[in-house]
Each structure stands twice: as structure tokens, then as C-alpha cells.
């Protein structure tokens, strides 16, 4: 009885499978670096001056990057008891605050601060989630 030996082995099949797997892994690594890794966005840098009275807050832009007001979130709270006077996005719609310009923001809530209160004003850039300003002001 004569045995027929198959000289072909499984090696070529395993070789092709390994080459495809390596190609997929390398392509995945390249895709991650091309599409997933980049420099993080930065919030605009601006020097802002705040003054407050019992009805509104005056924001004066004294230099730096222009602020797109529609991308800013403003939160105004009482520094003593955490009463929220304003927590809103889209400051007055779609204006732009540039160096030398002013913006008046009225309190949103029905309870306004009184003269002598210390209020905390926080402005955040919504697209990046980074703070632009965080300060305390005495209401006049």
C-alpha cells in the first residue's frame, strides 16, 4: 500500500492570515494618529474688566482675543450664599466682544443682588469647556 504524502503544509495559509492581521493593525494605528490625535482646542484669551450694579453686569474687553458671545456661558452667583443670578449660554445672541468694546448683561433670575453683595462671575468657552474669566465683584 502506497501512501500519498501531501507536501503542502498549512504554513502558506497561516502566513497570509498573519500578514493580513499585521496590515490591519498597522492601518488602525495610523488611523488613530491621523484622525484621533491632535492639538487640543484653546479657549480665547482675553483681559476682561467687570463692574456690577443691582440690575446688570458691565463687561469691558481690555485686550486679547475677540470673544464670540454665542459661544460663551456666563454664570453669576452670590459669593456668600451661592444664589444663582444668571446661568445662561449665548450671551445676547451672536455678537462679538473685541478689545475696547463693552457688553451689558442683565441678570436672568428674579432675585437680583443688592448693593454691597459680592458676586462671582464666571465666563466659560463652551466649545472647549475652558474658563475665560472667573472673578469676584462688589455690587455698587
Short description:
The chain is an alpha+beta fold. 19% of the residues lie in helices and 39% in strands. The termini are far apart.
Low-confidence stretches: none
Q: Distance between the terminal alpha carbons, to the nearest Å?
A: 111 Å
Q: Report the top-level CATH class of the largest domain.
A: Mainly Beta
Helix content: 10-25%
Tell me about the largest β-sheet: 4 strands, antiparallel
CATH architecture of the largest domain: Sandwich
Computed CA radius of gyration, to the nearest angstrom = 30 Å
SS strand fraction:
35-45%
Number of helices: 1
Structural class of the secondary structure composition? alpha+beta
Can you identify the CATH superfamily of the largest domain? Immunoglobulins
Averaging pLDDT over every residue, what do you get?
Answer: 85
Major sheet: arrangement of strands: 5-4-8-9
What is the count of distinct domains? Answer: 2
Q: What characteristic shape results from the CA principal axes?
A: rod-shaped
Counting DSSP E segments of at least 2 residues, the number of strands comes to: 9
Can you tell me the CATH topology of the largest domain?
A: Immunoglobulin-like
Element order: H for helix, E for strand: HEEEEEEEEE
Amino acid at each position: 500500500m502506497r501512501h500519498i504524502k501531501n507536501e503542502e503544509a498549512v504554513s502558506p495559509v497561516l502566513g497570509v492570515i498573519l500578514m493580513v492581521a499585521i496590515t490591519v493593525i498597522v492601518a488602525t494605528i495610523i488611523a488613530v494618529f491621523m484622525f484621533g490625535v491632535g492639538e487640543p482646542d484653546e479657549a480665547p484669551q482675553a483681559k476682561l474688566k467687570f463692574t456690577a450694579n443691582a440690575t446688570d453686569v458691565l463687561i469691558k474687553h481690555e485686550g486679547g482675543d475677540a470673544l464670540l458671545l454665542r459661544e460663551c456661558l456666563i454664570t453669576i452667583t452670590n459669593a456668600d450664599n451661592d444664589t444663582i443670578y444668571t446661568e445662561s449660554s449665548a450671551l445676547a445672541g451672536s455678537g462679538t466682544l473685541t478689545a475696547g468694546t463693552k457688553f451689558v448683561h442683565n441678570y436672568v433670575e428674579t432675585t437680583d443682588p443688592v448693593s454691597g453683595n459680592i458676586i462671582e462671575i464666571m465666563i466659560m468657552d463652551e466649545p472647549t469647556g475652558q474658563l475665560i474669566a472667573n472673578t469676584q465683584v462688589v455690587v455698587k
